[in-house]
Amino acid sequence: MRTYVLRRLLQLIPLLLALVVLTFLLLKLAPGDYATGLAENPQVSAETLDAMRHRFGLDQPWHVQLVLYLKNLILHLDLGQSFSRQQPVTTVLREGLLNTLLLALAGALVTWGLAIPLGVLAAARHNSGVDRALSVVAFLGLSVPEVLSGLLLLMLAARTGWFPVGGMRSLDWDTLPLAGRALDLLRHLVLPALTVGLVPLASRMRQMRASLLDVLRLDYVVTARAKGLGEGAVVWKHALRNALNPLITLFGYTLGSLLSGSLVAEIIFSWPGLGRVTYEAILARDQYLVVGSVLLAAVVLVLGNLVADVLLLAADPRIRDD
Amino acid sequence: MRRLTTVLMGLATLLALGAATGSTARSARPPGDPVPAPLEPMRVSMREPGVPGGRFVLGVTNDARTFNPIMSNESSSSDVSDRLFTALVEYDNAAQQPVPALARSWEFSRDGLTCTWHLRRGACFSDGHPITSQDVLFTFAVAYDTTLHQSVFELLTPHGQKMQLSAPDSYTVVMRVVRPYALLVHAVGSVRILPRHVLEPAWRAGHFASAYGVGTPPESLVTSGPWVLKQFVAREKTVLARNPYWFGVDARGRRLPYLDELVFLVVPDQNALWLKFQTGEIDAFDNVKAEDYRAYERGRQSGGYVVHDLGSALTSNFFWFNLNTVKRPGGPRPVGQPCVDPVKYAWFGNRDFRRAVSMAVDRDAIIRSVFFGEGVRNWSLMTPGYRLFHTPRTVAPDYDPAGAKALLARIGFRDRNGDGVVEDPKGNPVRFTLETNASSNPRVQMCNFVRDDLARVGIQCTVTPVDFNTLINNMREDFDYDAILGGLGAAVPPDPGMGGNFYRSRAVSHFWNTRQARPETPQEARLDSLFDEIVLLRPLPERQRISAEMDRIIDEQCWVIWLPTMKIKLPVRDRFGNLHPTILPHRLIWNIERVFVKPQGRR
Question: Of A39-48, A288-297, B267-276, B471-480, where does mean pLDDT reach its minimum?
Fold first, then answer.
C-alpha cells in the first residue's frame, strides 16, 4: 500500500513538469502578453509598455523564460511573481484556496448528501411514481445551467431576505463573536453551495440508482430476502455496500475537480475564491499566476484520484487482494 | 545654581504646556478630534455642512491591485489610491476646474515657463509627519523614474521634456518648463504625494514598484489624503477610515471626512450589483447597464434612492478602416506599403467610400436597440459630456442611405452582376470584416447593426468578435484587420490635450494609421500642429476653437465613423448629503470626504 502511494506520488513529478511546459507554451502561442492588456489605456505609451516587458522579462525569448521559471521552481520551489498584484504567486493562490475548498466541499456535501439517499429511494421504489418524480427533478436540475440557477437563487435571496445577496461574510464580520462568525459564514454559504451542488446531483443520483438496481438483481439479495430479512436491511445493509464501489471512484473525481468546478458560482455570488483568481489571471495574461494555478489544480486532481483509489482499496477487499 | 536651573526648566515646561493648551483652544477643534487642525487648513466649500459618522458602501466589480498611486494601472486601483493620497491640486468634477489641495495657491510667471506652488503649512501625513516640499520633490523624482513605467509619465513630459523642480524652502516648490504647457496644473494634479520618510529606502533599493502593494499591513501604509487603509481582503472588500491628520475642514472648522468608513465591496457580477443595491447592502455602484435604467426608475418610489441622470458618457464609440502602412522592415511586405490587401486599401483609402459608409449607418436605430433609447449621437472624441470642448455642429455625414448609394455609384461602386453586393470599378465585390472586443456586448451589437445597414447599400460586412488581446495585437502589432469597432474612455481633466495618443500621427492610438514617422497626409500634418498648439498655454476660447478645428478635420476625412454614446444614469441611496455624482470619473466618490449620512437617514 505504502509503495503504491509513493509510486503514484513520484509519477506526479514528470506529469507536473509536462504540465508547466504545456501551459507555458499555450500562453505563449496566444497573441499578446500582460503588457498588451494595459494598452487599452490611451495614456500608456508604447515605450512604457516596452519598459514594462523588459522589467518582467517578457522581452526574452519564451524558452529563456521557461528555463528560468523551471529553475526557480525546482531549486527554490518559487512560483514566481504575479505581474498584476506585484505579489508572490503563492500568496495570491493561498488567499483563494481555502475559500474555494470551503465552497466546493459544501457543494459536494449537498451533492452526495442528496444523491445517495435519493438514488437509493429511486432504486428501492423502482418504476414507481416516486422514482419517476425524482427522475424529472434530477433532469430539470441537470438541464438548468449554473448561471441561471445561481441568478434565480440570488433573486430569491433579494426578494425574501432569507439569505444575503452573495458575498462570503457580512461587513461587520470582524466585530462578531466566534459563534456569530460561523453562523454568518454558514448563511452566506447556503446558496452558492446549492448552486454548485445541484449541477452534478442528477448524474450522481442516477448512478446510485443504476448501481443499486444491478446489485438488487443478484442472487445473494434474493437469498437475503428469502431468509426473511426486512427490505430495509436488505437494501441498506447488504446491497448498498456493494453498490457503492463505482460511486467511490466518482467521489474521487469530485475531489479532483474541487478547485475548478465553482467558477460560475464564485462570480455570481461574489465568492472570493481561486476560480476568480485563475480566470482574472488568464484574462490579464498574468502568466506565472496562470501556470501556478494550473499546477495547483493538477496537484489537487492527482491527489483526489489517489484518495479515490485508496478509498476503493479500503472498501473492496477483492481489489486489495489483487 | 542647580536649583535655579531646575526651577527655570520647570517654568519652561509649564510655559510650553500653557502654549500647547493655548494653541489647542485657538484652533477650536470640536470635541473628539484627536489632532489639532493644521496652521493653514483647507476650507472645503459645500452645499450643506454635515455631521460625522456613518459608512458608505460602494459596489465595485474588481478590487485594487496596488495602493501605490504611481504604480496603479487600472481604475480599480486608482479609485482607492486617489482617496488615500492627495495631490498639490485636486479636480473639482462639478465645476470642471482644478482647486487647491496640498498647495494652498500657485502662480505662473509672466512668460508661462515657471509655476510656483505654495504648500499648506501644518499639513501632515497620516503618521503625523509633516508634508513638506521635500516630499513633493521625492514624489516627482519617482514619477520621472523611467525604470518604473508609470502611466503619468507622458502627461508629465510636455513637448518631450521633463519639468525642472526645485524647493527654495520647506513650503515652496518651483516648476520650470521649456515651453508653456496648458495642462501643467492638471499634470501636477495627477501626481499623488507620497511620504519620502517611508518610501525613499524602498525606491533607493530598487523595489518601489512593489511598495505599498495590497499586502501592506494597514498600519504601515502612511497616506497624505483624507483616508487611511483600515482593512483589505482580496476579492472581498477594501475598507478605508478617516485620516485624523488630513488638512480639510468644513466651514465650521470641523475635520473632514465626515464618514467613519468608506467601503469598496467587490461584486464581480453586474446583476448581483443591482440586486445588492436593492436590498440595501450597497449604497451606490458605477457599473451600470442601459438596459437596467427602466428598472432603476421603476423602483425609485419605494426603494429609498434617487436616480441621477448624468447625460452622455465620456466614452466615445466608433469604427475605423485599416489605413496602416508598414512601418518596420522584416515583415512580408516592404516598408511604406499598405498593411491590408491593396484592393481593399483602394476602397478604405477613398474618402468618399468612408463617407458613404458613414451615411449608411442608422445611429437612431443603434440608440433605440443597443442603448434602450438611453444614448446620444456623437461626432467627436469630445462627447457632450466634455462640457467645455464639445462642439455640437459637425460636418460628419449622418444617416442617408439613398445618398450613400448615390455616392457609391458616383465613385464606380455598382452591383453589376445583380447578387446584391456592389463591385468596385475593377469588378471586385466589396466585402470586409469588422472586428470588435467579444467581451463587450454593446460593441458586438453595434457591429451587427452596422453590418445590416451596410448590407442595405450593397456592402458585405462580416462581424468577427475576438478576444481582447487578439484585438489589441491586431490593431497595434501585426495590423492584420480590415476594420475595428472600439472606443476611447474618459480622462480627467476632460481636455483635448489629454487625447495626444489619438490625434497625433505618431501616436499609437491614432488607430487608422498609427506611429507615422512623419505625417503621411497634409490633414494629419495640420492635426499635429493643431495639437501642439492646444497643449501650449492659451486662453480657453482659443483652445476651444482649435479643438473644434481638429474635430472638423477628422470628420471631413471620415477617418473614424462615429457611433452613438451611452447615457449614464446612476441610482444612489438618498440618505447621503453632499453626494454629487458627475460624468467625470470617479462619478460617485470624487468628493466623498464631504459626503455625510443625513441625521434622518441613520440606522
Answer: A39-48
Nearest alpha carbon to residue B505 among B485, B489, B527: B527
B263, B473, B488 ranked by CB distance to A42: nearest: B488
In the prediction, which pLDDT does A183 show?
92
Give residue-wise pLDDT tens across range B559-582: 999 999 999 999 999 999 999 999
pLDDT value for B443: 94
Chain B residues inside the 8 Å CB shell of A98: none
Comparing CB atoms, the residue among B263, B467, B473 nearest residue A171 is B263
Asked if B125 contacts B131 with a C-beta cutoff of 8 angstroms, the reply is: yes
Q: At A10, phi and psi to the nearest 5?
A: -65, -35
| Diameter of chain B measured on Cα atoms | 118
Cα distance from N-terminal residue to C-terminal residue, chain B: 65
Helices A178-216 and A245-256, packing angle to 10 deg: 140
| pLDDT of A4 above 60 | yes
Rg over alpha carbons for chain B, rounded to the nearest Å, is 28
Tens of pLDDT, residue by residue over B353-382, are: 999 999 999 999 999 999 999 999 999 999
The pLDDT assigned to B274 comes to: 92
- Angstrom distance (rounded) from CA B331 to CA B418: 39
Quote the cell numbers at residue B550. 481638429
Taking the Cβ of residue B269 and every Cβ of chain A, the question of whether any pair is shorter than 8 Å is answered with yes
Q: Residue A43: which of B57, B155, B468 has the nearest Cβ?
A: B155
The HSE-up count of residue A38 (CA atoms within 13 Å, CB side) is 24
Please state, for a pLDDT cut of 90, what percent of chain B lies above it. Answer: 67
- Cα A15 from chain centroid? 20
Q: Does an H or E element contain B562, and which?
A: strand B560-563
Q: How confident is the model at residue A63 (pLDDT cuts 50, 70, 90)?
A: confident
Contact B60, B228 (CB under 8 A): no
- Are the C-beta atoms of A110 and A201 separated by less than 8 Å? yes
d(CA B83, CA B61): 18
Residue tagged 504646556 (cell numbers):
B17
Closest chain B C-alpha to A62 CA, distance in angstroms: 18
How close is the nearest chain B Cα to the Cα of A74, in Å?
Answer: 25
**Bridge partners of B533?**
none
Q: What 3-state class would DSSP assign to B176?
A: strand
Least Cα distance to B69 among B186, B224, B183 occurs for B224
Of A86, A158, A272, the CB nearest to B209: A86
Phi, psi of A158 (to 5 degrees): -70, -40
Q: What is the pLDDT of residues B376-413, one digit of tens each?
A: 999 999 998 888 898 877 788 889 999 999 999 999 99
State which residue of chain B sits closest to A84, comparing Cα positions: B65
Average pLDDT of chain B to the nearest whole number = 88
Q: Choose among B553, B541, B538, B451: nearest CA to B504.
A: B553
Between A and B, how many residue pairs show a Cβ–Cβ distance under 8 A? 147
β-strand pairing of B172-176 with B114-119: antiparallel
Burial class from Cβ neighbours inside 10 Å (0-12, 13-18, 19+) for residue A119 reads buried
* Phi/psi at A150 (5° precision): -60, -50
If you search the block for the grid coordinates 459626503, which residue do you land on?
Answer: B595
Comparing A123-127, B18-22, B103-107, B440-444, the range with the smallest average pLDDT is B18-22
* Predicted pLDDT at B19: 36
Q: Do A165 and B233 touch (CB under 8 A)?
A: no
Distance from CA of B414 to the nearest CA of A (A): 38
